[in-house]
Design brief:
The chain is mainly α. It has ten helices and five strands; from the N terminus they run H-H-H-H-H-E-E-H-E-H-E-E-H-H-H. The protein binds zinc ion.
Length: about 220
């Protein structure tokens, strides 16, 4: 019996001894394993990843947010080692932006985002809709305009134009974003704890401070 023909029941048992990165490697062995381990709707598959996460990545003990699979969660939090849009692999060039569910480099972030001032002045974006969008404060300077994901802006405008009771819809969206902001902050902190060790966290902080003071604008 070859490794690729092992019955699923046995394979599931074997998975119980594997670290998430081994599970990921297993998905590349053959189509059969890939279809089992990449399944995002099967309860069995979700349990395999969840159990591995809890067993081997002790500080990743919080469950994924609603509508996110275990695989996607573990991938974003730990396994992905390059920008999700390009080939950048330098850890210090990459940042997790949980607000947009993106682990990417600054170049790719800039290509996909738009700042508040551009939306306001160039596109006449309705002021009340900003609170309906997830926003990212890229620079620690609170006076720096926040960024929005262009895809989110487009989707929001489509829905906004379609909605009849705009007032109620806006209120509901704003409430959802308030809750989401708290959650995003928690996941961003968790990500940094899981992915970086103490020295890396300190180095990232020092680099951030350096960028802040070297780019600081005078208002
Ligand atoms: Zn990139």
């Amino acid at each position: 019996m070859s490794f690729t023909t092992i019955p699923f029941e046995i394979l599931i048992e074997i998975c119980d001894y594997l670290h998430p990165s081994d599970l990921y490697n297993l998905t590349m062995v053959c189509k059969r394993y890939r279809s089992l381990l990449w399944d995002k709707t099967s309860t069995t598959t979700q349990l395999i990843w969840k159990s591995s996460r809890k067993k081997f990545i002790l500080n990743l003990n919080v469950d994924p947010p609603e509508k996110m699979s275990e695989q996607e969660f573990i991938w974003l939090m730990l396994l992905s080692n390059k920008c999700m849009f390009c080939d950048q692999t330098d850890k210090f060039e990459l940042t997790m932006h949980w607000e947009f569910r993106m682990y990417c480099c600054f170049k790719c972030l800039n290509e996909r985002t738009i700042c508040k001032l551009t939306l306001l002045h160039k596109y006449n974006f309705p002021e009340e809709l900003f609170a309906c969008l997830s926003q990212l404060q890229k620079n620690p300077n609170p006076r720096d305009p926040p960024l929005y994901l262009m895809k989110d802006v487009e989707n929001l405008l489509k829905q906004y134009n379609y909605e009849k009771d705009k007032k109620t819809w806006i209120k509901e969206r704003q409430d959802k974003i308030i809750k989401l902001n708290i959650e995003n902050e928690q996941y961003n902190t968790l990500h940094d704890q899981v992915r970086y060790d103490h020295t890396e966290r300190l180095e990232r902080l020092l680099r951030k401070l350096h960028d802040f003071y070297s780019n600081n604008r005078v208002y």
